[in-house]
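QUALITY CONTROL LOG
STEP: pairwise intake check
CHECKER ROLE: data steward
CRITERIA: each record must contain a sequence immediately followed by its structure tokens, with no blank fields

ENTRY 1 OF 2
RESULT FIELD BELOW
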Amino acid sequence: MTTIKEIAKLANVSAATVSNVLNGKGGASEAKKKQIRGLAAQLHYTPNTLAKSLKRRRSKTIGIITEDLTVFNTPEIVDGIDACCESSGFDIIIGNMRLFKKYNNDFTDTEKHQQLLDKVAASLMARQVEGMIYIGYHCREIAYLPNRAAAVPLVYAYCFPCDRSIPSVIYDDEKAAYDMTNLLIQNGHTKIGALCGPFDSFHTQTRLRGFQTCLFDHGILYDSRLTLFGDWSREAGRQLGGQLIQSGVRAIFSMSDEMASGVYDYCADHHLTVGKDIALTGFDNREISLAYRPSLTTVALPLYDIGAKSARILLDEINGTKAPDRHYKIPCRIVERGSVCNLQTAEP
């Protein structure tokens, strides 16, 4: 790798002059500046950012700990973090715990989780990160914290810690579920089935609360028999969605696009048409929501915004400004498509 000293030797100037020119500080004639910059480009000179960090005692780098980089929500959150950091002159380093690949859908906080987190956090700290963002792959309360987290500011994204003094950024599940239920009611539906994830899921509980609150506000009696719990999968959607339809439901609020896709499967097998015979909504705005005809009305998650907000909080804390509110909920957006029929105008 080319060094400043090598460029200085070729340009017949001091290393300090080369450094000043490449850092925009002047210190040479225009002809010499042009020569130095030309040599740097020709020799593919790359600044030693580690040396700069040691000199100024700041790395201008933050660490990102992902529970699993392959889960659908994580890349967009990372992109939001990266964009915010880039605009502030910070770099990012990612440490991936790979929890989903190792433990599937087991969200239990175990000693193994703690050991893995400590290992990833220690690796990031060794790279002199000035702060860390922890990204969950399923929103829930996290019991464990990095052992060395106290050394730098820490923010949780798409999850929240037991230690409520640490900032967190999630999205508003409850309000999104309320708005989606309200959309179905506005289209004349009062017998609405809820296709839920696992009962103990944070997402399930908050979305179910929004669903129930909306029914109450419209004077519609909640029927627990029309609330079924699955595992977020397409097959669960096919089986449970079929049970709801057989019970006379003509509108289904599915808490995931994957389960909603199973309802499409059931309808296709039983000569029913979504958007005509059955009103159907999903959640997450996954790619699959556009694959069906009619395409699925769903909830778009503010993943990029979660990342950007998390990074902004962290950068402010690195610079000594503590966020006044420690816990943020970012609104979701309803994406209306063709899967919701109006009960008054739909054919029986």
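ENTRY 2 OF 2
RESULT FIELD BELOW
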Amino acid sequence: MTRSQNLIAVIAAVLALSGASAASAHHALDAQFDLNKTKTMTGVLTQVDWISPHVIFHFMIKAHDGKYTLWVFQAPSPALLKRASMPGIDGYKVGSTYGIITNPARNGSNMGTFGVVTFPDGRKFNVGWADPSFRPG
């Protein structure tokens, strides 16, 4: 092989490995959350971390015993939330109550996906993870 062919082969290998890494990271969602189970809950929004690659929502969820516990919900990126027609960062009001259908964490921690969200005014958005017919890309 010529020197330029070797360089092209190396670049192709790096690109292939980069794609494998991204695919592996995407499949980590299945490893962290049980996408075959859903849990429905209502909670008060306490914080939103509007960052990539995942927006993180923090809620105080009232348990059956009346005690509140902090739950953290992982959403897709801001761009994917926009594609799902969800509001931007200013559309979420800390202190307001939201309904959430989530895929819970496999390890039993107070974490889940930000799947189907019902806003205080009744608007409902399907972010995608809690609906098995739609997977964000």
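INTAKE CHECK: passed for both entries
DESCRIPTIVE NOTE, ENTRY 2: The CA atoms of residues 50 and 89 lie 7 Å apart.
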